[in-house]
Amino acid sequence: MSELSINTTQNVKINFIAASVGERIGSYLIDFAIKIAYIIVISLIVFYWLGFADSFYKLDSWSKIAIILFLYFPAIIYSITLESIFEGQTFGKKLVKIKVVKIDGYQAGFGDYLMRWFFRIIDISFFYGIVALIAVISSKKGQRLGDMVAGTAVITLKNKINISHTILEEIGNAYIPTYPLVIKLSDNDMRIIKETFQRADVKNDYETIQKLVSKIESVTGIKNQSGNDRDFLRIILKDYNFYTQNM
Fold first, then answer.
1. Please, are residues 55 and 91 in contact by the beta-carbon 8 Å criterion?
2. CB within 8 Å of 237: residues ≥ 6 apart
3. Other beta carbons less than 10 A from residue 157's beta carbon
4. Which of 150, 126, 151, 123 is nearest to 137 (CA)?
């Protein structure tokens, strides 16, 4: 499976796993079944239960096409509508746990979903989906043609990297920072600090933790006010996230 790196608005790189061909096919089949079920139900209601079949067959070709488009229009715009509402997911994608995202880190918008929807004509409708299958398999990011044009990719939510693998820290809305000078550090500095601290904390490596605290104090001018090196490092991580998310 392909790995995708996406930069967040905090300039943090998060790795995702591209959805597999099997996941994408599974999602497509679920959505296809939903659309077919809708078409069958609408057809039964309009043409049989309401008795419109005889009148329909007497109409000219253009009128028939117009009525069919009107009745089945929800099925036609199914994917673009749901992806826009559910931010990159249809019912099929929700069940399979995959999602459409922008590969530049921004939230995909209606224009991106529209481009993907439009290119379904080439990707899926023509040649029974062979074009899409070849594109996804051959693409390094698991993209079909519509994804390539829209700058999107489909990721699996099952293997999304946890927040503990990034420099991000969970902080509440009422959080009050302690060390403003922490902004002297860079994202890369914080990533190294967090990874080093996590490894040292698990191993109870007090020497490494002390060296890490001393290094931070010398570089930033911050003085440990907590009296506990572990608490100090946790506060540093939270403070950095507070300031960078609110700048």
1. no
2. 167, 169, 190, 193, 194, 197
3. 15
4. 123
**Res. 126 pLDDT band, cuts 50 70 90:** confident
CA 127/CA 142 separation, integer angstroms: 19
Q: What is the pLDDT of residues 137-187, one digit of tens each?
A: 888 888 999 999 999 999 887 755 444 445 455 566 677 888 888 888 887
The DSSP bridge partners found for residue 3 are 17
C-alpha distances (whole Å) from 144 to each of 52, 112, 158, 182 are 40, 13, 21, 43
For β-strands 3-7 and 13-18, DSSP reports them as antiparallel
The mean predicted confidence, pLDDT, of the chain is 84
User: How many other β-carbons are positioned within 10 Å of the β-carbon of residue 246?
Assistant: 7
